[in-house]
Every structure is written in structure tokens, then in C-alpha cells.
Design goal:
CATH superfamily of the largest domain: FAD/NAD(P)-binding domain
Number of helices: 12
Distance between the termini: 21 Å
Bound molecules: flavin-adenine dinucleotide, iron/sulfur cluster
CATH topology of the largest domain: FAD/NAD(P)-binding domain
CATH class of the largest domain: Alpha Beta
Number of strands: 16
Length: about 550
């Protein structure tokens, strides 16, 4: 029986950082990954033009109903569909999962801002819920180290809501950014370079971005951070990593004392079931799946799921409310030559939180949100519905409008609620006989107030920039759309109220750690991945220290 130092579940952001850190510290790690290893040359089709694709990039219309919102002909076959989930009556949730090695880091949007004390101490400011068990001062060095590892392009901005970090040169603003920036200035809203984990210069042995676009279909040169390009080669170099692909973890195994002793797996290719043993188990299967694995890990010691004496595993699910707030066009750019300036889905600019900064109850809602502006020439003009006509005249109009459209989407944190959570569906099992995750989720009043305000502010920005508003969003996107879910195994000092301590070590089972966003106390106006990396680094070093002492 082989006994690893660490059995690691998942190789996304939380797993990737842990694998690298643990292997470099000399620990023998077995990483179990539910999907296959992608081959960038074959699987990432981002250099193909839509006219090279059978269905012009949209994918087979007979299958489109089954796609996630981010899935198309370019990424078909790279997203998980075999393992299902259910959504409770009255709830909404879309759960796109990439289970290839590297998880969603293969396709992420790369926006990488630090959280700060305005987030960690938010409850002390406005009285809602609880503070994080860490201060910014404590986590800042881990942010710096994570930023240096992955390379984040941005500028020092001195914003009260957004601590600055250690940055590569920012991406240049485009014409449309300068125009929108003037609109923002008139409305009292910041418009600044985003924090973007996309390499503007060569970094840590990786080549700079060649601005081909379509990063969310995978990068074939590794010019933005993903686990397979950045961390796995370093972990593999140590000789301490066993990576097993197509290996679906069913549950955590426990010994006679209720401590973790490994995991039960099924090989998805052979359907063979077996057990993998380790002195420590680390879960980083992403927020919802980690909770599902823990809830499925029932034993006489843990009848409600492993490390769940608090009853909090799966609770407190949060997400970002996403939606197009306003869209329109900039007449100043009509008829200008078009060129590939959208640099794909890169967040060149952002409008970082400007609400409730001094007084936490200045607005009708508490906390705050951020906004991403988008625009530039795209491979398919999404605004064609706005232009009337047909034939040659229609084509001329499309060309004239080509560089002009702009839109905004908001990043609004949902507030913790007792009614938003994940549990196991008592009626439904997946193809391997494992009870599936059931999602319970609805947007709350605080986030909907922000949504209404964001629509109004973004419309004003377009107009103040001299643009014309075509419309505003009607409904926010379905919950789950942002892929930034948090909170199902929250960390805290009190074992009765929290699943893990402030290092991601579960209170009940000291040799079981969690290193993904399920640890997060609250959803904020910032994206999750940089914080997952920073907290995973900290948790991994805590684990190493514990093992050394043992
Ligand atoms: C299109 C897109 C845009 C995004 N934009 C941004 C952004 O701009 N900024 C940002 O911060 N974040 C963004 N994200 C989110 C970001 O990708 C996630 O926050 C991050 O990848 C989460 O890391 P994770 O380790 O928790 O999970 P994942 O990256 O999802 O990795 C989960 C891992 O667990 C494995 N796994 C799951 N279940 C099992 C199981 N039962 N057994 C074995 N293995 C299992 C999977 O195979 C995978 O390796 C975006 C994501 C997408 C897809
Ligand atoms: S735009 Fe840059 S980071 Fe994105 S896929 Fe192309 S080379 Fe990679």
C-alpha cells in the first residue's frame, strides 16, 4: 500500500499552488484530477478564425441547448457534462466546470485584484455577518509572492478599496478607453487599468502575450497564468508529484479515529474503483465540489459529512451577480478603421469600487461593486441587431459601426444568506452512483439594489462620454455565471461556527485541509483567483510546518 505525504484533490488555482508548494518542500504528493490533460496545440483552437470552423464558432445548433454560456465550438469537449447536478425548486444556478488538469485556470478572465481590510473587516464596518479571521497585513506578503509567481499587469492606483501590488507594466488604453474615462471623470467614477494576470512582458520563463485574442479558449504559449503552464512543470521537476488524470474522487476515507486516511476514487476510463492513501488530504475541487465531496464523506465518526460538526459545510454559498448594465456606441469612432483592439476578453480597464468607501452606509445598500467596461473590434459584431437594413448597405453600416460599441458588466457580491447553500440531492445520483450536488440560490435585495444603480451609472457614463445608449440590462445573469462562487467551508476561529481554522485546516480533522474559495467568508467586489492563490500558499506552508513538527 503506497502512502503519500499528501493526497491532493484538484489542480486548479487552489490545487495548483498547493501542489507546487508542497512538492518543492519535499513532500510526496498524489494529485487526483477528475478530467484529462489538455494538449494546447490540439485543444486550444484560439488561432482559428470562425470561418475555419464547421459551425462558424457557434457549435452544432442541435447541441447548443446543452452548452454552458461560455462554451462554443472553440471549447467544445473541454467542459464537464457527465457529472450532473440539480437545482432546487425556486432556485437558479448554472455550474460550468472545467475538469481538465488546471481546472478553470485554463480559461479564466485573469482579472486579479487583491482584497483589503475593507473586505476582511467589512462586518465591523457595517454590522452584517462576520469579519474574516485574517487582516490584510497578514495576507499581503502572500499576495506579493503570488503576484510575482504569476505576473499581474497593472498600475499603482492608491484606491482605498483596492490595495496595490507588485505589477508588470499595464496594457495600453485604447481610444475607447480614453473616451470612456472622460465620461467616468464627469460622473465621479474611477476608470483605471485593470489588474490582469496576462504577461505584458516576458516573466518567470514565460513569453509575453502576442495579443491573439480569445484567451478564454486557452493560451497556446502560456502567456497568462494557468496551473499547467506555470505550476505543474515546477512541481514535476521536483520528482515528488504523481498526477492522476480522469480520476473522480467520490469521498474522503477516514481511519478508526475519524482522521483522513485518503480518498475513494473511480477511474473514469476503466470504471475501476480504488483507494489512494495519504498522511494528509487537501481538497481544492472548487467551492461547490469540495463541499459535495465532504458531504458525501459520511462515516460513523462524521454522519453528516467529514469535518461537519458545525453543520456549516455547504452553507453560506455566495456568488457575483453579473450582467450587462448598459450598452451603446461612441459616435466619435464611427467610420474609423477597425483593427484587433479588443485583445480578446482581456479586462484592459476596470471601474473599481467607488461606493460606501468613507461611510459604510452612504448608499441604500451595504458593501460595494466594481464594473468592467468592454468594447473594441470583435470577430463578430454583436451589435448587428441594433442596425437596420440588409444587403450591401447593411454591410457598409456594420463596417462603419465596427469600432464603436461599448458595454459594461458589473461584479456585484451577493450577501451571505441562510437560504443560499449546496446540499446533496437525496433523489439523484451521478453515473458513478455518487449523490449529486443540489444548489439552492437566489439573488438578495442588497445585490439587486446595486444592480439597479449600476445600470443607471453606466448609462450616464456612456452619455457623459458623448456616446449613445442602446439599452440597459433587463435581468442579471443566472447565478453561477460568474464562476466566482465562495463560502461553503468558511474559515474562522470558532469550531462551532466555522469549518476550518484561519489556515484552511479543518477544525474537526487536523489532517484535512481546504485550499479553494469555499474558505472565503464573504464575496467581495473583487475576483477570487488571486486570493485563492494567496490563501492556498499560506495553507500549504502551514501544512508543511505541521508535518515537520509531527
Ligand atoms: C471564463 C472564465 C473567466 C473567469 N474570470 C476570472 C477572472 O477574471 N478573475 C478571477 O479571479 N477568476 C476568474 N474565473 C474563475 C477562476 O477560474 C476560478 O476562481 C479558479 O479557477 C478557481 O480555482 P479552484 O482551484 O477553486 O477550482 P478550479 O479551477 O475549478 O479547479 C478544480 C479542480 O478540481 C478538480 N476536481 C473537481 N472535482 C473533482 C473530483 N470529484 N475528483 C477529482 N478532481 C476533481 C478539477 O478537475 C479541477 O482540476 C474565471 C473562470 C472562467 C472559466
Ligand atoms: S491574447 Fe495573449 S494571453 Fe491571450 S491567448 Fe493570446 S497570447 Fe495568450
Amino acid at each position: 500500500m503506497k502512502l503519500y505525504d499528501v493526497v491532493m484533490v484538484g489542480s486548479g488555482a487552489g490545487g495548483g499552488m498547493a501542489i507546487k508548494t508542497l512538492c518543492e518542500a519535499g513532500l510526496k504528493v498524489c494529485c487526483l484530477n477528475a478530467g484529462r490533460l489538455f494538449d494546447p496545440a490540439k485543444d486550444f483552437r484560439d488561432h482559428k478564425q470562425s470561418f475555419d470552423m464547421k459551425y462558424r464558432g457557434f457549435g452544432d445548433p442541435r447541441k447548443r441547448d446543452h452548452y454552458y454560456h461560455i462554451e462554443d465550438e472553440y471549447t467544445q469537449g473541454l467542459w464537464e457534462h457527465e457529472i450532473t447536478y440539480t437545482v432546487a425548486p425556486g432556485s437558479k444556478w448554472e455550474w460550468p466546470r472545467c475538469w481538465g488538469v488546471g481546472g478553470k485556470t485554463n480559461f479564466w478572465g485573469r482579472s486579479a485584484a487583491r482584497m483589503g481590510d475593507i473586505d476582511f473587516k467589512a462586518a465591523s464596518r457595517d454590522g452584517y455577518d462576520v469579519d474574516w479571521p485574517v487582516s490584510y497585513e497578514e495576507i499581503a506578503p502572500y499576495y506579493t509572492r503570488a503576484e510575482r509567481m504569476i505576473g499581474v499587469a497593472s498600475t499603482v492606483q492608491n484606491r482605498p478599496s483596492n490595495p496595490d501590488g507588485d505589477y508588470l507594466p499595464p496594457m495600453n488604453f485604447r481610444c475607447l478607453d480614453y473616451i470612456l474615462q472622460t465620461g467616468c471623470e464627469k460622473c465621479g467614477v474611477p476608470y483605471l487599468p485593470d489588474r490582469e494576470a496576462q504577461l505584458t512582458v516576458a516573466h518567470a520563463g514565460h513569453p509575453p502575450c502576442h495579443y491573439c485574442g480569445n484567451c478564454t479558449e486557452g493560451c497556446d504559449t502560456g502567456s497568462f497564468f494557468s496551473t499547467p503552464w506555470f505550476f505543474l512543470p515546477l512541481a514535476e521537476k521536483t520528482g515528488n508529484l504523481d498526477l492522476r488524470t480522469n480520476t473522480y474522487v467520490r469521498h474522503v476515507l477516514v481511519d478508526e479515529n475519524g482522521r483522513a486516511k485518503g480518498v475513494a476514487i473511480v477511474d473514469r476510463k476503466t470504471k475501476h474503483e480504488e483507494e489512494v492513501y495519504g498522511k494528509t488530504v487537501v481538497l481544492a475541487a472548487s467551492c461547490v465540489e469540495t463541499a459535495k465531496i465532504m458531504l458525501n464523506s459520511k462515516s460513523p465518526h462524521w454522519p453528516d459529512g467529514i469535518a461537519n460538526s458545525s453543520g456549516q459545510v455547504g452553507r453560506n454559498l455566495c456568488d457575483h451577480l453579473y450582467g450587462t448594465t448598459a450598452y451603446g456606441y461612441l459616435p466619435q469612432l464611427l467610420g474609423q478603421p477597425s483593427f484587433p483592439d479588443n485583445i480578446s476578453s482581456a479586462q484592459i480597464a476596470w471601474m473599481p469600487r467607488w461606493q460606501n468607501l468613507n461611510d459604510p452606509r452612504e448608499e441604500k445598500y451595504i458593501r460595494g461593486y466594481s464594473v468592467y467596461p468592454t468594447g473594441g473590434c470583435d470577430s463578430f459584431p454583436w451589435y448587428n441587431h441594433q442596425i437596420e437594413g440588409y444587403g450591401a448597405e447593411f454591410k457598409r453600416a456594420i463596417k462603419r459601426y465596427y469600432p464603436t460599441p461599448v458595454s459594461f458588466y458589473c461584479q456585484i457580491p451577493s450577501m451571505r444568506s441562510d437560504t443560499n447553500f449546496v446540499d446533496l440531492d437525496p433523489q439523484v445520483k451521478d453515473v458513478y452512483g455518487v449523490p449529486v450536488a443540489r444548489l439552492h440560490f437566489q439573488w438578495g435585495p442588497n445585490e439587486l439594489l446595486m444592480w439597479e444603480q449600476a445600470k443607471e451609472v453606466c448609462s450616464r457614463v456612456i452619455e457623459a462620454a458623448g456616446g449613445k445608449v442602446w439599452g440597459t440590462g433587463v435581468d442579471p445573469n443566472t447565478p453561477g455565471y460568474s464562476l466566482h462562487e465562495t463560502g461553503t467551508c468558511r474559515m474562522g476561529n470558532d469550531p462551532k461556527k466555522f469549518v476550518t481554522n484561519r489556515f484552511g485546516q479543518t477544525h474537526d480533522v487536523p489532517n484535512l485541509y481546504v485550499t479553494d474559495a469555499s474558505l472565503f467568508l464573504s464575496c467581495t467586489d473583487k475576483t477570487t483567483t488571486l486570493s485563492i492563490l494567496a490563501f492556498s500558499l499560506r495553507a500549504s506552508e502551514h501544512l508543511i510546518e505541521q508535518m515537520r513538527r509531527a
